[in-house]
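Today's session is about reading a structure prediction critically. Students often jump straight to the picture, but the first step is always the sequence itself: look for stretches that repeat, for charged clusters, for runs of hydrophobic residues. Only then move on to the predicted structure, which in these notes is written as discrete structure tokens rather than atom positions. Here is the chain we will use throughout the hour.
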Amino acid sequence: MMNEKVKEALKLIRQGEGQFVEFKNKAKFPEKIIREVVAFANSSGGHLFIGVNDNGSLAGLKYPEDEEYVLTKAIAELCRPAINFTVDLLQVKEDKEILHYHIPESKDKPHFAFLEKKHRYGKAFVRSADHSIQASYEVRQILKRSKRAHQPIEFEEKTKQLFQYFESHPGITLSEYIELSGLNKKLASNKLIHLALSGALKIEPKEGGDIFMPTE
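Below is the predicted structure for this chain, in token form.
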């Protein structure tokens, strides 16, 4: 009889890859897979399945204990700060076993993936739809400073100009804001970060450029 953990896993798998679900056929290259773990921890959490094809079909694992060992070891050694997670070995069919890693949203953001032990600096990743993308400077700063008390909004001329822009546009990228405001990149970036930390803006990470949008 199928247990509850297996039922829940199969339900998630049927939904397909997305913001909270990622499939990997094997853990053959764990240094590449850890970016998914980091992205989930830096975002809203998620589920990583090993032994599942991209289309959601169940490939199963020939040596699941070995796969679990190499990936769990990589997470412990190559992710900083340490990331909390749980892992279950699930028998989804009579002859098929998969691994289910559940990574909750972290309270210690941002986390970094050191893609090799010798690397001095890590890379932060976040989730964007069904992809894990490298976090921009703005996203990293917001993750790092979001634990602090919200900063008050200063409704000076540049802020008013931005919110007037939002009356006819759903969002704005950093490059678009530089053009709109006439500020240099550093000042424009700091302005958007400040507004995001104040709660006036929310940020949607994108590979082609993060989008800042009003929260209301």
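Discussion point for the tutorial: The CA atoms of residues 84 and 201 lie 29 Å apart.
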